[in-house]
Write a structure and sequence with these properties.
By secondary structure, this protein is α/β, with parallel strands linked by helices. The chain has a single domain, classed as Metallo-beta-lactamase, Chain A. The protein has seven helices and 14 strands. The strands form two sheets. The chain has a seven-stranded mixed beta sheet, with no helix packed on it. Strand 1 and strand 2 form a beta hairpin. Helix 1 packs across helix 2 and helix 6 packs parallel to helix 7. The longest helix has 15 residues. 48% of the residues are buried.
Length: 281
């Protein structure tokens, strides 16, 4: 049975994606714009709408200062990788904006996400280590992506999620080759000038360029050929200063020429949510 996902926001000011089945829903990341929108009721989520929040890493565009308040509002636990826990506690707990939910926020459980899959309701969430560390004063110890599927691993519906990575490791290719839908960053155009203090973005532990993303998607398809189940790709985390939607889309399409399958390409942004996308065959 298919499930579905919606990218709520994606960009340097805030990232979040909602994944839901008929009985379970999880939120992946909750960056600043998203946390503000949820707490200000622009994005209408309430207690009972979400079962857990999974955080990729501790940067503010993924783990907002008000994340604990969002978790309190939704009354859900937050899952982070153990390597991220110290970063997470220093950044999120240390800068949480106290609100009317202050008392509830102090009781929210921040749980360690191990190397193995975590089952929430009827969804299975598998963490994948990603090569992303950040730069300057915002270095993080660990970053992860996810593969979300049904509790029974044999069910052939999977969503791959990777929004911060400087290159695509072999284990990510292996997992994503089994996915029906993928959310992956297409962060910058390599033909733009490098901004002061942003050189780290273009390192193997920074972000993916539109060219690297296009090549990665083609390789993922070629791994399975005509047996590839990939039918929808969401290009995410586009830089507002070093990229534009047309460039990202064209780079992906250029690398799809001659591919055994040609998935639909949708571009996410940080100001408006996408429509629901079904993860099916």
């Amino acid at each position: 049975m298919p499930f579905e996902f919606k990218v709520l926001r994606s960009g340097s000011e805030g990232n979040a994606t909602l994944v839901r089945s008929t009985s379970t829903a999880i939120l992946i990341d909750c960056g600043k714009l998203v946390a503000d929108a949820i707490l200000d009721r622009e994005i209408r989520l309430a207690k009972g709408d979400v079962d857990a929040i999974f955080v990729t890493h501790s940067h503010q565009d993924h783990a907002a200062a008000r994340l604990l308040d969002v978790a309190a509002l939704l009354n859900v636990p937050i899952f982070v990788h153990p390597t991220t826990l110290e970063d997470f506690e220093n950044t999120v707990h240390g800068r949480t904006i106290l609100s009317g939910l202050e008392k509830a926020s102090s009781t929210i459980k921040v749980k360690s996400l191990g190397e193995k899959a975590r089952v929430i309701g009827d969804l299975r969430v598998t963490p994948l280590e990603l090569p992303h560390r950040g730069g300057g004063t915002s270095v993080c110890s660990y970053c992860c992506g996810f593969v979300v599927g049904w509790k029974k691993y044999s069910t052939p519906y999977r969503l791959g999620y990777a929004t911060d990575l400087g290159h695509v490791p072999k284990h990510v290719f292996s997992h994503f080759a089994e996915c029906n839908c993928i959310v992956i960053e297409s962060n910058y155009d390599p033909n733009t000038d490098v901004k002061a203090g942003k050189g780290w973005v273009r390192t193997p532990y920074g972000h993916l360029s539109v060219v690297k993303t296009g090549k990665a998607l083609r390789h993922i398809i070629d791994m399975k050929g005509e047996d590839s189940r990939l039918h929808h790709v969401v290009l995410a985390h586009l830089s507002e200063t070093d990229n534009d939607p047309a460039t990202a889309r064209e780079a992906a399409r250029a690398h799809m020429k001659g591919a055994a399958v040609k998935p639909r390409i949708t571009l996410a942004n940080q100001w408006k949510a996408l429509s629901w996308i079904r993860v099916d065959a």
